[in-house]
Amino acid sequence: MSSTTNTPTHHTSTIGSIGAPSRRNTELALLVFAVVIPVFAYANVGLALNEQVPSGLLSYGLGLGLLAGVAHLVVRKFAPYADPLLLPLATLLNGLGLVAIWRLDQSKLLQRIHQAGTAAPRQLLYTALGIALFIVVLIFLKDHRVLQRYTYISMVGALFLLLLPLVPGLGQNIYGAKIWISVAGFSIQPGEFAKIVLAIFFAGYLMVKRDALALASRRVLGVYLPRGRDLGPIIVVWAISILILVFETDLGTSLLFFGMFVIMLYVATERTSWIFFGLLMSSVGAVGVASIEPHVKMRVQAWLDPMHEYALSQQGVPGHSEQAMQALWAFGSGGTLGTGWGQGHSELIKFAANSDFILATFGEELGLAGLMALLLIYGLIVERGVRTALAARDPFGKLLAIGLSGAFALQVFVVAGGVMGLIPLTGMTMPFLAYGGSSVIANWALIGILLRISDTARRPAPAPATNPDAEMTQVVRPS
Amino acid sequence: MSELTLTVMRLGFLAVLWLFVIVAVQVIRSDLFGTRVTQRSARRDAARPQQDRRQAPPQQRQQPAAGGGRARRNAPTKLVVTEGTLTGTTVALQSQTITLGRAHDSTIVLDDDYASSRHARIYPDRDGQWIVEDLGSTNGTYLDRTRLTTPTPIPLGAPIRIGKTVIELRK
């Protein structure tokens, strides 16, 4: 590993590899910080709403701390060289999400509208399940390259998961989007898990095909046109994502899958033309579907003119939603520094206040300053993912890490952009913050896989085996 | 709860949140890894013993790594003449070659009938290990009791005999 400069007379400097330190103690310190911040927020909400420190403070703090501690110990044991930041960042987001959900649980208005008030304990349960899956991933996935063997099984699995909500009797249509299935009383969003499985398929597929995709192309008008047979898979994925959009009316998921594929394709082939094609195809698809599908069309209208939409819904015209405008008002009333925990009125958003629109609560109560910090934390998670991809030595790990962090970034963009009115609103959940079991569990698994890849990437290379020639030369020594 | 307390908590929370972000960024800053350029020091890498052993004569190799390990931790800093006319002379070991012999341009000019003009040289190899090499002398160079035939690493404190002169490397 280490090489030495060899100047003729002196040898003064060495160029050697720095063995990346394991950084587990850094992780522990940050993790303590990441547990203390949500506990502070929790106490703050209680003081603001009820003028007393909430009774559940100790159990909540201990619960979050225990989960984080167990996760940390497992990382220490099974992935000692993994990235020190991913776990604390995810823990902080998850903890803040729990606080915001608990804060919305306290709202009398939301308690009347639907059986809220129980969301926070359930989210804590989902968090525990998520961390359990995280631990399972770290213990049983000793080497991420094992996943490469399941490339095509992953494809079938991902398609199966995506099609599940369309199965009659199993799928549920909630608020106009058919992305849930109901199993034993639990609503599961298979799309969240399909995200990870699909990333495994793309990584395995592109690792094999990337040379053909990168090199066998014709140059027409400055862009590289790939061959038809290489273009095939991107067309298929595009068609699938459009079909999801049409049948499940889920703009976010289809954008996520197609975007993830284009990102991975670009990284695998280094051809800008794929981004060009990707943007072209996704805009054609989105415009096409938006002009046909009424649900999507409504979302686009609500995006273009939220005030008109709000007025229509106040007049009682069915099929219109006041939420988009309310979210914008929430951001506006938060201002720069926010109203403070528990002092906003984001419960007025009513349903989905603690899931799709949870960002509006943060925007109102923490203001621009808090929201920017949250987005930076998301950015840091993505940065660590990309850094892992850069450090990974095997192409499969590189592609998988970039795919997973790209999907994470896209999801944050799609949700935050939707709530803030930058793009049409879609029914996706903010990773870790929003209420929703599938999302929390799937994202913890995603972090687990990223930690596994980063552990492999940052692990110091084993000492090179003794060169057999070195022993041989001893034997033929003249005596 | 007073308005003031809540305001302090509100701003305090934002401050703590940003502090976390800043600390996380600091961790990234200190987390750079890859290659670095270091000034050579006495400390050596763990990869060293294999290369040392390659050049060591058989009796050296039979000694366990403990001897070599001590030498690596305690790199010699000076060469001391312990017997002969120059007894007591020390030469600081920098990274240049030390030549021994009767020739006037040697680093240590041996006034010794049994030494050749250019008798031996002592030099650090690429890894900083000090090596003694006999330069085809008539009466030979001895490390401990063994006559040298190949360039050989010098253990700390091992006597190197040239004629009536004995030198050794010390800390």
TrEMBL record, chain A:
<feature type="transmembrane region" description="Helical">
    <location>
        <begin position="399"/>
        <end position="426"/>
    </location>
</feature>
<feature type="transmembrane region" description="Helical">
    <location>
        <begin position="150"/>
        <end position="167"/>
    </location>
</feature>
<feature type="transmembrane region" description="Helical">
    <location>
        <begin position="274"/>
        <end position="292"/>
    </location>
</feature>
<feature type="transmembrane region" description="Helical">
    <location>
        <begin position="28"/>
        <end position="45"/>
    </location>
</feature>
<protein>
    <submittedName>
        <fullName>Cell division protein FtsW</fullName>
    </submittedName>
</protein>
<keyword id="KW-0131">Cell cycle</keyword>
<keyword id="KW-0472">Membrane</keyword>
<feature type="transmembrane region" description="Helical">
    <location>
        <begin position="357"/>
        <end position="378"/>
    </location>
</feature>
<feature type="transmembrane region" description="Helical">
    <location>
        <begin position="86"/>
        <end position="104"/>
    </location>
</feature>
<feature type="transmembrane region" description="Helical">
    <location>
        <begin position="432"/>
        <end position="451"/>
    </location>
</feature>
<dbReference type="GO" id="GO:0051301">
    <property type="term" value="P:cell division"/>
</dbReference>
<dbReference type="GO" id="GO:0032153">
    <property type="term" value="C:cell division site"/>
</dbReference>
<feature type="transmembrane region" description="Helical">
    <location>
        <begin position="179"/>
        <end position="208"/>
    </location>
</feature>
<dbReference type="InterPro" id="IPR001182">
    <property type="entry name" value="FtsW/RodA"/>
</dbReference>
<dbReference type="GO" id="GO:0005886">
    <property type="term" value="C:plasma membrane"/>
</dbReference>
<keyword id="KW-1133">Transmembrane helix</keyword>
<feature type="transmembrane region" description="Helical">
    <location>
        <begin position="229"/>
        <end position="247"/>
    </location>
</feature>
<keyword id="KW-0812">Transmembrane</keyword>
<feature type="transmembrane region" description="Helical">
    <location>
        <begin position="57"/>
        <end position="74"/>
    </location>
</feature>
<dbReference type="Pfam" id="PF01098">
    <property type="entry name" value="FTSW_RODA_SPOVE"/>
</dbReference>
<dbReference type="GO" id="GO:0008360">
    <property type="term" value="P:regulation of cell shape"/>
</dbReference>
<feature type="transmembrane region" description="Helical">
    <location>
        <begin position="124"/>
        <end position="141"/>
    </location>
</feature>
From TrEMBL, chain B:
<dbReference type="InterPro" id="IPR008984">
    <property type="entry name" value="SMAD_FHA_dom_sf"/>
</dbReference>
<dbReference type="InterPro" id="IPR000253">
    <property type="entry name" value="FHA_dom"/>
</dbReference>
<protein>
    <recommendedName>
        <fullName>FHA domain-containing protein</fullName>
    </recommendedName>
</protein>
<feature type="region of interest" description="Disordered">
    <location>
        <begin position="39"/>
        <end position="76"/>
    </location>
</feature>
<feature type="domain" description="FHA">
    <location>
        <begin position="98"/>
        <end position="148"/>
    </location>
</feature>
<keyword id="KW-0597">Phosphoprotein</keyword>
<dbReference type="InterPro" id="IPR050923">
    <property type="entry name" value="Cell_Proc_Reg/RNA_Proc"/>
</dbReference>
<dbReference type="Pfam" id="PF00498">
    <property type="entry name" value="FHA"/>
</dbReference>
<feature type="compositionally biased region" description="Low complexity">
    <location>
        <begin position="56"/>
        <end position="65"/>
    </location>
</feature>
<feature type="compositionally biased region" description="Basic and acidic residues">
    <location>
        <begin position="42"/>
        <end position="55"/>
    </location>
</feature>
